[in-house]
Design a protein that fits this description.
mainly alpha, two-stranded parallel ribbon, 12 helices, 6% strand
Length: 290
């Protein structure tokens, strides 16, 4: 069990500063026009690329390039639409957040499962080894100091990029492990409603149809699998790289919660700051700034 200091001195002070910032600058806490425009461009572009790949006989090189772009666009939707929607911050309307949060299902994973893994576990126990599923992917990668060190890890800076390309595909596969084991790493899942059970299986079958079966019927099994693989290589590489830059870098802190009860010396909000790194904050393309 992981416990933080019960006091909220830092949290209350920070929360007040954030509230004052939004009021002073007359800003909404949810998405703005720039985010909505970017969302429309990303989603529309992904749909156009998908339909084009199925209906137009492109030269091989162009088709491969478009599969790469398709993967990158899905990553963009994941970070700009799905992430904010499943955090409940994309829109003031709950139904809009719920609907757009399902873009995670369109990427092959599951929005409900992601909320459990990300909103509850990751954001509560960020970089706590043994609890935060995001830093326990494979023994081939040593992602924090408390994890076992093996000889091969001296070369992980060489082969880690290849493993990153598998991350989005493995996200789809591990959903089933979480579903049937009813836990994420060591944390039991909350009980799923019948609606969530239905959405889980319906979206998995729909994903199989739209990404494997339908392309195979139109293009042939070989080209369909090749395009699917290329798309996931770029999707996974983008997702994994951005996550690593946010949490698994030299200056962020880690905690060992694998073997016994962990009592973190800091309150939760301080722990969040210490375990998270900002990057590309001045990018007009990635941050919606004008």
């Amino acid at each position: 069990m992981v416990k933080f200091k019960k006091e909220k001195v830092f949290f209350n002070a920070l929360n007040q500063q954030v509230e004052d910032y939004f009021k002073k600058n007359n800003l909404k806490k949810t998405g703005n026009t720039h985010l909505y425009i970017k969302s429309i461009i990303l989603i529309a572009s992904a749909i156009v690329v998908y339909i084009s790949l199925l209906t137009i006989n492109f030269p091989t090189g162009i088709a491969i390039a478009m599969c790469c772009i398709f993967g990158f666009l899905q990553a963009g939707i994941g970070f700009n639409v799905m992430h904010d929607a499943n955090h409940g911050s994309y829109s003031e309307k709950k139904w809009v957040n719920s609907l757009l949060g399902l873009s995670m299902n369109a990427m092959g994973s599951n929005a409900w499962m992601w909320k459990q893994k990300h909103n509850i576990i990751h954001h509560t126990y960020t970089n706590v080894d043994g609890v935060d599923d995001d830093i326990v992917k494979t023994k081939l990668l040593r992602m924090c100091p408390s994890q076992d060190q093996m000889k091969m890890h001296r070369y992980q800076y060489i082969y880690c990029t290849a493993l990153y390309t598998l991350s989005s595909f493995m996200m789809i596969v591990t959903d089933f492990i979480k579903y049937f084991s009813k836990k994420i790493l060591t944390t039991p899942l909350q009980k799923m409603s019948m609606q969530e059970h239905f959405l889980f299986w319906f979206s998995k079958i729909a994903y199989l149809f739209f990404y494997i079966i339908l392309p195979s019927m139109i293009l042939g099994f070989g080209p369909a699998i090749l395009g699917f693989t290329i798309m996931h290589v770029f999707l996974g590489l983008t997702l994994a790289t951005i996550f690593q830059l946010a949490h698994v870098v030299e200056k962020t802190h880690f905690q060992n919660g694998r073997f016994e009860d962990l009592h973190v010396e800091d309150e939760w909000a301080i722990h969040q700051v210490l375990t998270t790194a900002d990057f590309a904050t001045n990018s007009k393309i990635s941050s919606c700034r004008t």
